[in-house]
Fold this protein.
Amino acid sequence: MNEHSRSSQNYEALRAATTSFDCLAPAGAAYPQLIEALDIVMLAVFSASLDAQLAPLDLSATAREFLAKQHINLAAAEIPPDLSATAQDAVQQAINLEFVTGFRVVIGIAWGWRSPA
């Protein structure tokens, strides 16, 4: 899968996640731009949080490099096949946890964007 298809999938996933806010959007809201911005926020939060979760794990430099290239895939990130079962479980748990962290931040921003001051 190329980076454009991943970006399109991320856009569609975030658009689906924020669909519930459609009824709250003011007339003429620029949803494509909002979703693109939230996509960037999601990736940044997920990447930083995942790196922090993975830091204490005993992973090789090769495994860390492999995982760094997987950030763009968010929750669908692949796990290095050469890790032990315990390490694979820890990495998968970190990926799942940090996807939820990113999702919560994005939903919080979307809600705050719409909520009156």
Notes: Helices lie at 3-17, 31-54, 61-70, 85-114. The CA atoms of residues 18 and 110 lie 8 Å apart.
